Amino acid sequence: MAQQPEWNVLMRTCPSRLSLTHIANKWTAMIVIVLGDGRHRFGDLREAVDGISGKVLTETLRVLERDGLVERHVYAEMPPRVEYELTALGQTLHGPLQALAHWAEEHIAEVLVARDHFSAPPLTPHTASVD
Q1: What is the dihedral of CA 53, 106, 111, 104, to 10 degrees?
Q2: Which of 39, 75, 90, 93 could pair covalently with 86 via S-S, beta carbons 3.0-4.6 A apart?
Q3: What are the tens digits of pLDDT across the range 79-99?
Q4: What are 20-64's pLDDT values in tens digits?
Q5: What is the pTM of this model?
Q6: How do the residues of the chain divide into helix, strand and coil, expressed in percent and rounded to 5?
Q7: Cβ(64)–Cβ(21) under 8 Å?
Q8: How far apart are alpha carbons 100 and 26 in whole angstroms?
Q9: Per-domain boundaries in the chain
Q10: What class is the 16-119 domain?
């Protein structure tokens, strides 16, 4: 049996970089988080992920399906019904992305303070107070 190569995302030629690029996309993270609750129709996903356009949702779902993270279910009904759900592989991604979302929500106040501090004009000798 052939041994699997050692993947290293830090190497320019490593194919895992492509997966990381897809996973690091903000829309991917949000879609995977929503689909962690189970199957959803396109309209439900669009409503759950506030601000995503139909075009971007379609493109992101196609990438996730191609990468084996999402499965698309088409029902022969009139009008046609389509649902999306995470595959077993996609389920393995849900926990880490959910943790990332919790981190973002928990630390946004600190991030905003840091941004304000970073953007504040530097103190000059004329504006610095002397005690």
Answers
A1: -30
A2: 90
A3: 889 999 999 999 999 999 999
A4: 888 888 999 999 999 999 999 999 999 999 999 999 999 999 999
A5: 0.82
A6: 55, 10, 35
A7: no
A8: 11
A9: 16-119
A10: mainly alpha
